[in-house]
Design a protein that fits this description.
Layout: H1 16-22, H2 29-41, H3 50-75, H4 77-83, H5 98-116, H6 118-136, H7 148-170, H8 176-196, H9 201-206, H10 212-216, H11 218-242, H12 246-268, H13 270-299
Helix pairs in contact: 2-3, 2-7, 2-13, 3-5, 3-6, 3-7, 5-6, 6-7, 7-8, 8-11, 8-13, 11-12, 11-13, 12-13
């Protein structure tokens, strides 16, 4: 038998690096940042509360978001075999049902850590875990919808962590102002998630995922995404002005104007420039979130 006839035996244990890739550290930043925004907006002194803040940020990012990525990759393994065959599960670097076991173990870990954050933190964690599975898993699989899927992810990435960060420090429900601003940024994140769907066009078409880029085409989907992001921030600016925070409103206006310039570049080539926009325009979007968080802090 020649050396060319020898094949490696199937992998039994997952590669450690593949497990890290599975939970996608690059996706952790939005919920971590949103949780920090919520903590800032609560108006409670952060000194003396940093332990709870850091624990919540770890929960929102590496644990719950990481769990959601593992669950999504397991449920999307057939789609990824078309779009991204190098991903840990379709490539075989995470063999068998290990992807499912990792997602389930991290779901349990999420609930255990959420319990440490008190009733508000635990309740929000339960919602986040259920939302992650509802997005990816049959029979619900909300990601099949270009409207409900991005909406749920935007809520889970921006609105829920913001609300939780404020509620944990307050040990109670945040103010109406905090909920309104968090909700608007969550609504705007629908556009960010729509742009994220551009990378999976072919696999989504093949497997019946009706994302907006698939249903409406990249050009129209990009215009909708930009409109949703811009309208949410314009409403934030209006509320900040009404609530007596004109300087913070001016700050959010400045980052929105910079986004308009980036959107012009995006709309010239939506499919090609979507990854670029997610690396540039989104930074400006989240900068406005922190500006708004400090405005809310000043209202308490």
């Amino acid at each position: 038998m020649s050396a060319l006839d020898i094949t490696s035996p199937p992998r039994v244990w997952p590669e450690p690096l593949a497990m890290l890739t599975l939970i996608k550290p690059i996706t952790w930043f939005p919920p971590i940042w949103a949780y920090l925004c919520g903590s800032v907006s609560a108006g409670v002194p952060l000194s003396g509360n940093w332990g709870m803040v850091i624990l919540g940020m770890v929960l929102a990012g590496p644990i719950v978001c990481g769990m959601s990525q593992a669950a999504n990759d397991w449920c999307d393994r057939h789609v990824d075999a078309v779009n991204e065959p190098h991903r840990p599960i379709p490539s075989g670097r995470i063999p068998g049902r290990w992807g499912l076991w990792i997602a389930l173990a991290m779901s349990v870990l999420s609930l255990a850590v959420g319990w440490l954050l008190g009733p508000w933190g635990f309740g929000a964690t339960v919602f986040g875990v259920l939302a992650a599975w509802a997005y990816s898993a049959e029979p619900v699989r909300l990601k099949r919808s270009g409207w409900w899927g991005p909406g749920l992810v935007g809520l889970s990435y921006e609105g829920l962590p913001w609300f939780t960060g404020a509620a944990v420090l307050l040990n109670g429900a945040p103010s109406f102002q905090t909920v309104a601003i968090a909700g608007l940024y969550a609504m705007g994140a629908h556009g960010i998630m729509t742009l994220n769907d551009f990378k999976a066009l072919e696999g989504d078409r093949l497997h019946g995922v009706r994302s907006l880029p698939v249903v409406l085409g990249p050009e129209i989907a990009a215009r909708i995404a930009c409109t949703v992001m811009a309208m949410a921030q314009m409403l934030v600016i209006a509320l900040l002005l009404i609530w007596g925070a004109p300087l913070h409103g001016l700050g959010v206006t400045a980052v929105l104007l910079a986004q308009f310039a980036a959107m012009r570049v995006l709309l010239r080539d939506p499919k090609g420039k979507a990854p670029w926009y997610n690396a540039t325009g989104v930074v400006l979007y989240v900068a406005g979130m922190m500006i708004s968080a400090f405005a809310l802090r000043g209202m308490t």
